[in-house]
Amino acid sequence: MPARERGKYIYRIARIMQERARELAIIESLDGGKPIRESRDIDVPLAAAHFFYYAGWADKLDYALPGMAAQPLGVAGQIIPWNFPILMAAWKIAPALACGNTVVLKPAETTPLTALKLAEIFRDADLPPGVVNIVTGAGATGAAIVNHPGIDKVAFTGSTDVGKIIQKALAGTTKKYTLELGGKAANIIFEDAAIDQAVEGIVNGIFFNQGHVCCAGSRLFVQESVANEVVRKLKDRMETLIIGDPLDKNTDIGAINSREQLNKIKALVKVGVNEGGDCYQSSCTLPSKGFWFKPTIFTGVAQSSRIVQEEIFGPVLSIQTFRTVEEAVEKANNTPYGLSGGVWSDKGSKVFKVTSKIKAGVLYQHL
Amino acid sequence: METKQKEKIKKVAVGLNGHSHHAETEIRLAVQKTYKLYIDGKFPRTESGRYYKLNDKNGKVIANICRASRKDFRDAVVVARKAQGDWQKKSAFNRSQILYRIAETLETRRLQFVSTLGLQGVSETAAQKEVSAAVDMLVYYAGWCDKYQQVFSSVNPVESSHFNFSFPEPTGVVTAIASPEQGLLNLVSLMAPSLAGGNSIIILAAEKFPLTAIDFAEVLNASDVPGGVVNILTGFSKELHTHFSSHMDVNAIVYAGDNSAELKTIQTNAAGNVKRVVVVQNIAEESPYRIMELQEVKTTWHPVGI
């Protein structure tokens, strides 16, 4: 098929997603528990925007990959997590289609609904049968995709542990793969930062989507001179967060995705307390039914604490202090992860200097 | 006598575009369209009151076309300058969606364009092909809106402690003179790269294809293109090319005409405020360099240090 016509299919998909955006947002929140405000304003429009964006690349690949004469790989096996179901599906499917590949996609076992709705949209867009295939299931289904000889490329987003299993499984094959794994992002607040804005950013960074975000800002480093102020303001702000019904548009923090995840968060928070961390939770009341967890921060934690080292994937922030720039950088880099990070300061040159020293793939600068 | 009159009215009912709507059963006079200019999202008549006749192949007048004046053009520059800032500030993704929207609207009006291109002497097969090419070209440039800056930007290694980066920005207000031999694709080919790159534009339509130009203005008007971002004039290149190229608040001129004397005047006048002059030889060409011809590159030195 000419690249231009391929692109036009993807544009159609984007348009139909936009037309059905509200429906998709409601299904997404029902299925995964995220606040409707987030699925309505972020997940769904962004997913449609991804299709729209990659549609345009279909006939421009020579400019995206100069000198490469890019050819499709064939069949892409794609495995996505439960934290951003439709957005992850878009990230995976849209570029694969734009480059002329076909797709077998497995949504997470707790959040398959919007991917299946997408299948309906592909059909309505007249996408030829077989170009995108959605298979639901858990780990065994994922393993079947990874190990199938007819798969030419594996794209995985999920936990670091599963990523390692996949990388091992693909050793000795010619399959290409991309792995997008965990994170333990550090936010660094310097004393010259706009503190109120920084607090707002920290709240978004860790409590957005219940902290089910691979680039969640789960570690906070505050310069000692402003630490008390930041923690006080953070606690004040946490008190105003509304936890509850994901379908209520006033809700800030929705439901934890599954019982399994809730248990994991509870277990790690317990470890944090046992290791001597000072745990603070907002005083909100939680709904009696369902999976919920209060916004939580830890102070007085060590670099070696498990809650500082391990990805919790929940609304739990650990806070440490520092005195010098060098100390902040050293502490921020003291993790095996390297996904993202953020720096807050009033001085642009300092922010650039610090971000250049942080070992992570995406850095947010805040001035 | 009565029958004769009926016959006469029937013929008139066949109307402007050669289609008979109710000729068999009813006596009805077709309503003819007044073709005006397109400035600031509105359809004003030329302030000059001048016109030229567009004839069909039998010499019958199809319409009286506005013969835009220097004043019309100057009005258009004022609104184009005013509209450009907001157009540039729109997110690239939003501009992309608006260009795609133009394609959607144009595709649904295919029959209308095939019909009026036919009136202006284009065969139906050629007209069908031209509409398809125009729609596809709009989609092509819609795709570039949020990509050309990615492709043509750079981070530059420098000796000092700076983060140094360069990226293209729109040049501003663009004027364009269409190819005399072409109707629809012509307009899209001049407009789309300019719009994708965040410029506003004033286009002088081909003398032979004013109907298509104003029909296309209606498409723009129905596609969320903000008023003033695209302005379309009808009239004579021989009258307007000097103004298009000498106006001091115009940043670039795109010439798709075939008159070397006009081009030389344009190139000479452009030096007055160092306008970019872009000569389009192949209006069917699709390339991001068509966008880049209407861009300025900005380099920023950002200090890095504690």
Radius of gyration computed on alpha carbons of chain A: 21 Å
Number of strands of chain B: 10
Largest sheet data of chain B: 5 strands, parallel
Class inferred from helices and paired strands of chain B? alpha/beta
Span of the ends, CA to CA of chain A = 47 Å
**Percent of sequence in beta strands of chain A:** 15-25%
| CATH evolutionary superfamily of the largest domain in chain A | Aldehyde Dehydrogenase, Chain A, domain 2
Write a structural description.
The complex is a heterodimer of chains A (367) and B (306). By secondary structure, chain A is α/β, with parallel strands linked by helices. Chain A has two domains: 3-180, Aldehyde Dehydrogenase, Chain A, domain 1, CATH 3.40.605; 186-366, 3-Layer(aba) Sandwich (Aldehyde Dehydrogenase, Chain A, domain 2), CATH 3.40.309. Helices cover 46% and strands 16% of the residues of chain A. Chain A has helices at residues 3-19, 21-32, 36-57, 61-64, 85-98, 113-124, 139-147, 160-170, 195-207, 224-239, 259-274, 306-309, 325-332, 348-357; strands at 75-79, 102-106, 132-134, 153-157, 176-180, 186-189, 219-223, 278-281, 296-299, 316-322, 340-344, 362-366. Chain A has a seven-stranded mixed beta sheet, sandwiched between helices. In chain A, strands 3-2-1-4-5 form a five-stranded parallel beta sheet, with helices on both faces. In chain A, helix 14 links the parallel strand 11 (340-344) and strand 12 (362-366). In chain A, helix 2 crosses helix 3, helix 3 runs parallel beside helix 5 and helix 9 packs across helix 10. Chain A is globular and about 60 Å long. The mean pLDDT of chain A is 96. In chain B, helix 5 runs parallel beside helix 7. Chain B has a single domain (70-303), classed as Aldehyde Dehydrogenase, Chain A, domain 1, CATH 3.40.605.10. Chain B has helices at residues 2-14, 70-89, 92-108, 110-119, 124-144, 148-152, 184-196, 210-221, 237-246, 260-270, 288-292, and strands at residues 51-55, 61-66, 154-156, 162-170, 173-177, 200-204, 230-233, 252-255, 276-279, 295-303. Chain B is globular, with a radius of gyration of 22 Å. Chain B contains eleven helices and ten strands. By secondary structure, chain B is α/β, with parallel strands linked by helices. The chains are: A alpha/beta (367), B alpha/beta (306). Chain A binds chain B through residues 4, 7-8, 11, 49, 52-53, 55-60, 63-64, 325, 348-350, 352-353, 356, and chain B through 93, 96-97, 100, 136, 139-140, 142-147, 151, 163, 288, 302-306.
